[in-house]
Fold each of these.
Amino acid sequence: MHHIQQLAANILLRVESGTNLTEALAEAQRKAPELTPSERGALQDLAYGSLRHLARLRFYLRQLVAKPLPEPVLERVLIVAFYQLQHTRAAEYAVVNEAVTLASRLAKGNFKGLVNGVLRNFLRQRAALERAAEKDIEASFNHPLWWIKGLQRAYPDAWQAVLDADNGHPPMTLRVNRRHGDAATYLERLRAAGLDGEALDGGSIRLARPVNVRDLPGFADGEVSVQDWGAQQAAHWLDLRAGQRVLDACAAPGGKTGHILESADVEVTALDIDEQRLQRVADNLERIGATARLHAADAGQPDGWWDGRPFDRILADVPCSASGVVRRHPDIKWLRRPGDFAALGVQQAAMADALWPLLASGGKMLYATCSIFPEENQQQLDSFLNRHADAACLRQEQLLPCERHDGFYYALLEKR
């Protein structure tokens, strides 16, 4: 089991040096093919959980070990062990023993006694440490201070609820393929299979608890897909009609593309700059029995792929900070930097400007992000409208993460 602890500590190190969690976890699992399914599940829980609670776990570490240890992985072993002791059912003695065994193999075993002492002190002083953490804003809310302050400015009444949602577990929400049936009928099939959920509006079902997709009736036949309710709003907002030409400008992994094709008999061109990610779009469309023109291309450089025929609808799901989906990807809050928004803003504006000429007169473009920061959303909309006299905003909405959905922003623009 200490093997898992070390793998989790290595994942933390990789993430803190800039690798995203999905990649770091996949890499760790590739290097340890001997892991059983339950060990793989445990490793995922330790990696995700430690990052979800990282600020508080780091706070405990600095209270108990004033100066950084010379072997960085030892600090991460302690952080993972704190997470296990506080958030899992693992036996306390087993967690401590595993960490001590690991310490004996690292840094020539010089810190074996220190690791043992720190973890025993943590168990003895836990209540006092928790009280102290509550008084530290980063440790209390498990987000970087600059992020917390940004949310306080943007949402003076809702910032705390957003942070609480970020620190929770995401719902598993389904999109029922309307070409196969409706939510009420599918809910009955779920219950017959021993699963439960509740119907949300627009053909969505939120499951009572997450399950493996293999256990979902009709999943392999494309009768249902996994997609957050917030992401499902894109196809509804696009106001699709049969026969329209639709561009999905940043399509991977293909959830919104699939939903568009399920919603109306439209002709879709789907782009993604990354060929491997585009393959995921192809796989998703194949599962639901839908087809689109797929191009591995840069949406911001239409000369390379556009045939000159205008589109009736454009989904501009632009690159963003992904700050609205932190509970699904807890590494995001630690990988982002305050300076990222300026660079992202330039990219977002350039892509929206490049796509606008491709839209037919009277057509609609949906600007979309999975961000909750106004710099990527409202401010981008305002400056876009200033640059384009022929653009009118029909409606916009900022969805903040909550128990029902993740954080998303939508602005529907019409070409006048």
Amino acid sequence: MSDQVKQTVKKVFEDLATSLETGRMEARIKIGLTIDGSELGIAVMKQAAYAIKQKQLFDLVLIGSDVDWANDFVHYSTTDCQKESAELMEELLDNGEIQGCVTLHYNFPIGVSTVGKVLTPALGRELFIATTTGTTSGARNEAMVLNAINGIIAAKACGIEKPTVGVLNVEGAKTVERTLTTLHEKGYGITFGESQRADGGNVLRGNDLLLGSVDVVVCDSLTGNILMKLFSAYTSGGNYETLGAGYGPGIGRKYDRNICIISRASGAPVIANALEYAYELARGKLGVISQQEYQTADQAGLQELCNRLTAPTNKETKEIVAPPKEIVTSEITGIEIMELEEAVKVLWAANIYAESGMGCTGPIVLVNPKQLTAAQNELKNANYL
């Protein structure tokens, strides 16, 4: 009898014993772990595996090279080849043998990106970072809107009924905020969080990341990836990730595999946390929630809003002469920095003198106090606010 068959028989009897003890016959959740490819060596995989085994929350299934400790787990042997492990992982997920998996180096299709989870240092709050790897869209602003939905999906699958959402103050933040607000008004319920800075708002500063001011922070994947590395390894000098739950599951429209990513620098604590994250997502029916959320968002006009974000711009490019100069002391905030000069020229075209500037919270347009209301209305009508 082969070792793999012995392990399967052993598992059947363990399941039967558990059913007799608890009176419940449902199958235990199984989460896979591919054990090859870490820069820290296979020892960190071993430490994480035994940490999970002690908690007995779910069954751990190993995928990868033969190691002397694999007999303590269900183990699918492969050569030390990440491609082979990835293909086997997909097969086990698709046939229902495992309900989630933690792995390194996985190529998600375009439209899918990962939602990481970290522990914020100020108050020890869990924070979902949407997103951290993958390409949700080739258009940055559209990607961030979809990232917000992916973050909400991950948080809901982990049991947060109404996760609070904020947009990180990066390029595109104001445009994304406006789009999400419109989506909310059209029927896709979003619970917006608020910055803890004095001026509040849905756009988050660095302080809010440290505090964990919201449940889900929305950003582009490159920024999210950097944030994950900083949050995970700032106590170790950078070469060993000690905190958080890894870079998270790949989420996207019509994508239902529960595949969670870790880094080659992820240490045993992060790997163990990533396995628990995958378990929470499996228990919370990640695929079902993803389908429901995208369906609701589509009913609220998600595709139309995304089309607007990716449509070629038709804004006026002819030279506009500034009206007579005035004293400008009133600030208009909330304008995308890449659109700042365009917004100024929109006001010039309406015979309102304006100047661009940079305030303490970001880009601003300066106008005369007597022209403030008219200027705000012009910018709203031109979709700059």
Amino acid sequence: MIALSLAEIASVVGGQTHDIPDPSAQVHGPVVIDSRQVKDGSLFAAFVGERVDGHDYADQAVRAGAVAVLAQRPVGVPAIVVEDVQTALGALARHVVRRLGATLVALTGSAGKTSTKDLIAQVLRSKAPTVFTPGSLNNEIGLPLTALTATEETKFLVLEMGARGIGHIRYLTDLTPPKIGLVLNVGSAHIGEFGGREQIAQAKGELVEALPAEGAAILNADDPLVRAMTSRTKAKVILFGESGEADVRAENVRLTDSGQPAFMLHTPSGASEVTMRLYGEHHVSNALAAAAVAHELGMSATEIATALSEAGSLSRWRMEVTERPDGVTIVNDAYNANPESMRAALRALAAMGKGRRTWAVLGKMAELGDEALAEHDAVGRLAVRLNVGKLVAVGGREASWLQLGAYNEGSWGEESVHVSDAQAAVDLLRSELRPGDVVLVKASRSVGLESVAQALLDAEGEVAAR
């Protein structure tokens, strides 16, 4: 974080100083909400959670090196007291972003946000110092915390923006006004909360509405609901995709024998070949989105292609591929799931598993509302159509729908099995896996299926990660 005095921070957030002997003392370390993450020079933001009240850890935070606490009441140690810590955190982030003047890139979408954000960050940091959202901290707390890690050297700030309702992205863009806004897709994620894809499109489009006239809206030419957002922005529009009308597009898309995408990247400045380290054809669209951002920021096609070809996965449990010493390959994509990402992962598994026996260990896709039965059934059916060797559906009602979809698709579906929980899945796999098998593990985050992948890896001791 840039150095700010406690007096300046209090002024920015509209707070009152309490128990501060020296208002000129500077915060120069990170702003944190977990007292265990405090470093020398930090500002500790004390949130009141469902189970833990951060104010109870104020003394511990100061003893660990925090200069002061951002709090909603006096805490007996140096503090800036405000009415609402979340609002104050946002105000501080807005102040820092405007003061720095870094180019702010914001992105949203129903699927692929984190993977695309990681690609954008890796491409841009090959050009200049870049700060980006860690993992998927894309909400009203995670976004300002990320923005506050920027320093005077930061040239690009890449922020992922999530939404669970109309107005959420508008709120985030007010905190950190973007110059470049990217919308990846409009899918089924959180459709139960929004009520339909049109409502999701309305929420995602708030990003392009926030862009200045001198900014750029990066839109998916292959998604009609995203492409229609052209009319909702006063900024320049750049289209990406496989469509011939896209400004940044891919041609000759193919998968290597190991399931990694390769294609010819075309931008207005030229063309160059890309062979990615990531797995699955769905990463082509993510790569094109990153390429469109990089092109707008002045990078050549060759520079972009080189950076994309060198980029890896920065976030855990997203198509994380690990090979055990016995030749079994574990694909841990268990961070989250929705119908679009589930289909993409299954297609990647099919590509990776050519000539090998494949397993799809799948669980519930959350927040689908009235679409849940049909979507789980469709995923089970797709596993059969892709000739996945065996489906292991883990959990309760939704898992039974996955298994039933596979069973009803045809005779292969009899190879599918429904187990009650993660441990049952582990027991089954440990007894039946053989060298050369490929195992995909995927479900919504609440299911916790990453434990299945980890158990399968732990069982074999040391592994060689790709």
Amino acid sequence: MQLSPLRTRLLVGTLVAVAFLGALDHTVVATSLATIAAELDALAHMSWVVVAYTLASTTLMPVIGRLGDTIGPRTVFLIAIAVFLAASVACGFAPDMSALIIARIVQGIGSSGIQLTSQTLVAHIAAPRDRAGYMSIVGAAFPVAIVVGPLVGGIITDTIGWPWVFWINLPLGGAAFLFALFALPRIPRSTARGPMDVVGAVTFAVGMIALVLSVTWFGEGGGVHAVIAAVIAVAGFCAFVTAEFRAPMPLLAPRLFANRRMAVATALSGIVGIGLLSVTSYLPTYVQMVYRVSATVSGFVPIATVFGMLVAGLVTGWLVARTGSYRGVAIAGPVISAVGLIAMSLLPVGVPLWLPTALMAIVGIGTGAFMNLVVAVAQSSVPIENVGAATAGVNLVRQIGGTVTTAVIGGVLGAGVTARLDAASATLTPQQVHAAAESVQSAVADAYAGIMHPVFAALAVVYALGFVLALLLPRGRIENDAPGSAPTGAPAQRTPSEERS
């Protein structure tokens, strides 16, 4: 769509602002959790403030993607902002933990709509080659939020109180909503019509809820409840796949994944979730225990990782927008990350902190090179009327991969620490470890290194798989013609709307 330069700038600024808000709410609350739980007298349910938000945003993703295709991404985007802001108000006024969890569920739904339709709108307003550049700008909100969120959450909680962790969304979100009313073009609705895939939505919700419960309970020690939830999750997802083959208007049409570019881009998005997003939560603890530094200093490692992601994403987005070539970047990215993770797995205890910081920056560079690119590739692989569903599929796989692997790593870390250390040492906080005797510090450092080094090696194998997957991408370039068109030079397996003259 042809927009004026002013309107384009306003639109991109609006998308970045709301994408930042949605991403920030994943991280800003973490610092305030203990305070919130203590004031609401519900420490046992503290984790559900985060789980409810993540679960709601993930479960509704396919539904929101399909709604964007049927009623238009502009409408969904504006509704999502309004829902997110209303839920933010409710979170701050929550009188107890139950009310807060319910409000977080609604807020997660709004966040999912914001994140998903931000990317879908890019596909509607930008030519295929330009999408990579725009996507890198909008996608920069996520790594910035990872760094800024905990700091902002801590300052707000210590000064004006935890309700403002949620209310801080209102000024920026309200301004973004007003700008969106002006800047967002009215995008014609898809000509494809049909009933909402209710069976698909229900079966996916059952599978996703059971999956999150299963990995959460496994991380807390397992038990029969975790096994039952895992069985229900498998049954739910099998029923979902069956429903998608039968539905006249499926949430995630299986035929979309018959396209090789779409299938590979989706798989590479899962590599991002499994390979990096899962381990970032544990980097500060690992650094504090192994390198014996404060919590503040340990933050430099994830910051370097995120900075690498940010720079690489912007650079590769600019390169693809200029040249249209995407395959080389997608191949190189996993290799770079794999090299960094292999080096992390081989680091001896006691090396200077700058070395793991530099290595994790390399991992971030490799991941950032293709993290946003695969979304643009997926969007360019399907007809424009399916771009919302395609965007939902790519993000969904990334989210599930990150959620499951985060729980797995947490379980491995907890079990490993318990097995390698005595009961007294296993429960020490980083501050207590630093104040303990040298023998205790060395034992704890060796234990955490012995646990995390195989984790880094396993994640390197995941990125190696990503390299193999990237080799399957067709050769060619993304060209600036009709939105939804595929890269030139691609082989057969096209739908009629993808055929090029």
